[in-house]
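Is MTE placement plausible here? Inputs below.
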Amino acid sequence: MNQGAVAANRPGILTGAWVGLLLAVALAAVAYLAHHAAALPFPPYDLFDWTSRRLPGGLVTFGIDTMVSIIRALGLGETSTVAKMAEQGMAIAAFLIGGAVAGGFAFVALRNSATPAPRRRLAIVSGLLAAIVFAGIHLGVSREGDAPALIALPWLLVLFTAWGVALGRSYDRLTPTPSAAGATVEQIDRRRFLVRLGGATATITVVGATLGRLLARGSNGVVGGQQPWSATNRLPNADARVQPVRGTRAELTPVRDHYRIDINTRVPRVDVGTWRLRVSGLVSAERQLTLDQLRSYEPMHHFVTLECISNRVAGDLISTTRWTGVSLQRLLADWGVRPEATHLVIRSADGFHEAVALDVIRGDERVMLCYEWDGLPLPREHGAPLRIWIPDRYGMKQPKWIESIEAVGQEHEGYWVTRGWDREARFKSTAVIDNVATDMMMPSASGST
Ligand SMILES: Nc1nc2c(c(=O)[nH]1)N[C@H]1C(S)=C(S)[C@@H](COP(=O)(O)O)O[C@H]1N2
Ligand SMILES: [Mo]
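Reply from A.M.:
I modeled the complex. Tokens:
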């Protein structure tokens, strides 16, 4: 066989895309397992979180609104759970598509490189480049609880270089050698290799995803032994003469059913032991408060209905539970907030931030820093260890996972305000009749109802 026929028979862009996709699936599965086993980076989520914080605000809010509409129109289930799964799915899909595109381009580049040695180098360099890109992205979104960069970055280097090397090897394996017996044999051999690669990928994926999933379940910090407040207490209106109709939504949402909305594909993990609330800015002195110090203040309890600004009439992005915390009014007095201060800027572990006007706090003693829901420490996905409650405002005004509070003398545009959502974010009242008692229907004169 002459050289020309060999070149024509080399694997092309589509084969490259397919191999790139398979190898990206395997990489994602291994990374997923390591993510849950050792808090190492999961590149698809890193990429998604990094991108979603940088996309134009109008596009992000449009995307969210569209997603909520679709979930509702198709009746796909509880909105916030489905939305979070959809985001995670999009993250993985985008990563795999990237793998396919990279594989396609890599095969085109490899085609143009005649001998194996520079090809090998090219493959390794592609892997290294991908590693550097994802290392940068990871540094942009990494936070407390993640494996240290000294371990995470070399790990990414290993993962993506292995991806590059495997891509190069696959190319070589799929390239007919001049000594090969004939085209048909090569075709069969090539197909067999791709099938075997697919099989290996599937095995790695099933093992990685299953083990990762199991580890993820196990690490969901459920407090053993402690009972929620609602297990041993009745609602204040338990003896009221009006009872909810069977089938209507409960007044108090079990915490595990409380909707969850935030900008993270993975829940921030804050170590309560080392956590401090940093207070700075126009205050008498900077301070770092432990959770115990905040708990030592007289606690305050309120039944709070929290609603997301993306909620629709009769939607499910609204839930109620019993919040416990300390009044911010009380704290302001101790912090010595200076007269020229007008706002508190609150910053969170996930990069989220918002401001609350001091006038709002001074006018409402219920504004609280909350550390308990339904009598138990705030669950991780709902902002452990500390979040704020500002009555009558949508959730977008109310940071979870609070790390610092700064007293400032001017307005501050919060995360969603800079992306075009409402500055004040006051609740709009809606009324919903969930159910009608059928035995109250009157038969009509004709006998049918
Ligand atoms: N740190 C942080 N706090 C946040 C958010 C976020 O993305 N990050 N989302 C806000 C929004 S939009 C809503 S609706 C509420 C939801 O709180 P929940 O998930 O506990 O129901 O959290 C708010 N606080
Ligand atoms: Mo929200």
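Short version: Residues 226 and 376 are 7 Å apart (CA to CA).
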